[in-house]
Queue: 2 jobs
Job 1
Amino acid sequence: MIDNTQKIRKSFPILKDKIQLSSCSQSALHIDVKKAIDTYLQSWQEHGMDWGGWMQACENARTEFASMINADVEEIALVSSVSHAVSSVATSLAHPRKSKVQVTDFDFPTVGHVWLSHQDRFDIEFIEQPKDGFITPDDYKKQVDHETLVVNTSHVSFYDGYKQDLAEVADVVHQKGAYFFVDAYQSLGQCEIDVKSMNIDMLSAGLQKYALGIPGIAFLYIKKEIASELTPKITGWFGQDNPFAFDIKNVEYASGARRFDSGTFPMINGFAAEAALKILNSYKIREIEQHLQYLSEVAIKECDQRGLTLKSPKDVRQKGSNTAIYLPNASEIEMKMKDKGVIVSARNDVIRIAPHLYNTEDDVMKAIQELDQCLK
Ligand SMILES: Cc1ncc(COP(=O)(O)O)c(C=O)c1O
């Protein structure tokens, strides 16, 4: 468990005046992340240019990300968004027999959009979530078959916070001879991710949600044995073996997942990412996860007592931090709560209460109390 929350909170200045519970959308700004962004600006202002130093910050972020998911640094590509990562993989895949790509119907829409834009090459199928519950490995057993080339699904749902057992799903997917590609945008920074023990082939995540960073930078993990077999079609000079050879007439991909790098690194975002991932890597993610499970228990109990309808699982082992409360006018309630200094995030018909390591039981109780007030 996180036991020094009060000390941690001092590094997130917004918490002095506001309750921020929006980590499924944007987590709070840590002073070190602000400092890192300022360092980039200062360097630009003072030195005019520092390509070496700016690229190094992005490389450091890549290393921190690799260590966070237990991958080798050579298995990580630096991309601009999860959409970019999925597009890069989609354009690089080809198989003589298999043409089916499966996504679940609760995944983040961008994943569906990317794969659907490749319907000329792949048959896209949506694995259905059961009407009366959450998807299980059995649903994959029934719906994935030997025609499937890749299953691309999220670790934690952006909508209701449902957390899948990746190791079990990976087993099913691999039994059918397909690749397992995970969208970890909603789990990075709040749940343990170990690509080796979970047997994940590819994984992508950005920094803006629970990873304490900003958008504009994301990472793509591709298992070493697979990466070198793939030919990226979304590419550029940074994906080359030697970007600084300036050889316009030849394509010579870098080895490993670095071949999925493309253009100039998003440098200012890299500074923020390096700082953010360093902060997270200084904790045991399991402790953050336990803290968030406790806050989920608090949220679920408080909602039940107030008669609020939950969309999230009630078993905290099956969910991430996000507790989704059903409200048809969720966006309106988000604005009203913001006016009262409580930052939460609406999606469609839910308000998501998404705490992080810096939040307390008191934050969660006050937010739900405020939400209830706004409804009256
Ligand atoms: C699970 C998940 N995947 C993907 C995305 C979109 O990522 P990007 O905008 O980096 O493409 C989001 C954004 O909220 C998300 O929650």
Job 2
Amino acid sequence: MPSWYSALRPLLFRFDPERAHRLAFALLVGIEHVLQRRGQTARPWTHPSLQQRLWEIDFANPIGLAAGFDKDARAPHVWPLLGFGFAELGTITALAQPGNPQPRMFRLARDRAVITVNVSSPNTPGLRDLQTEEQLGKLVAVLQEENLALAHQADAQPRPVLIKVAPDLSAEGLDAVARVAQRHAAAGLVATNTTITRDDLLALIQEPGGLSGAPLRARSTEVIRHLYRATAGTLPIIGVGGIFDAAHAYEKIRAGATLVQLYTGMIFEGPFIARHIARGLVQLLQRDNLRNVRDAVGRDA
Ligand SMILES: Cc1cc2nc3c(=O)[nH]c(=O)nc-3n(C[C@H](O)[C@H](O)[C@H](O)COP(=O)(O)O)c2cc1C
């Protein structure tokens, strides 16, 4: 963590998490406006060993911003400036909802984790039921039909559709998701979302909702490994859950992730975390005599 962020973080952490997020975000949106006014497009930090092409998209590095941080796509040009190789923006929803009553975000400083009780999937009643083979199959089939129809209209290729899984699924549940993804030609899997379990926490927390960050790290890596094996490495996996440094990102890549994402790590380590991780990954690849990040994918699966 850079020293300026170690100085700023205690101040930021005095605010309740939602307010701190709003404050930090206001600054990022300000930078976005300046970039847009100047017509500037920043390039993410890159190195030949980190460059990959997937789904006909060039990735300058494999570190992405996870879903939920920039829900309304308000700072799209800022993420590459901070070093991110890609960013998951949105969620897009037909019927917007105000969310759960506040406070609904809880920072567990000693556990290096964040709970959200807003829209991440554990908090939407019934949403996780969609992960059963039958329900998920129907949903992905409809999405892919629509995807094909839209592509046909626009005389373009269909968009890559990725399925994001919960870390709390059983081995059979994960196998079912992998089967659906393959049967319905999903472009990849995202593993994982937040967890509803509260194992090994230092804090005594009663709040329901999804837990992210460090306590999720090992489980999400296990899920990545399971999915990589279940699909015999044929489907790209975006690994997410508890990434705070290059070693954590590398562990997920070696377990089977082609790309990685983070959310909570940025809150604890500061806005340039992606750049730090990218630099660290280059060194780890060199240490292991690997020419490109793709050569590391699944080595420990
Ligand atoms: C406050 C908050 C909001 C989130 N919102 C979403 C969301 O809207 N959609 C989604 O797929 N995941 C959402 N997530 C889950 C993250 O994208 C990510 O999968 C999870 O936090 C694990 O990564 P992390 O440990 O790096 O935070 C959210 C997470 C947090 C902490």
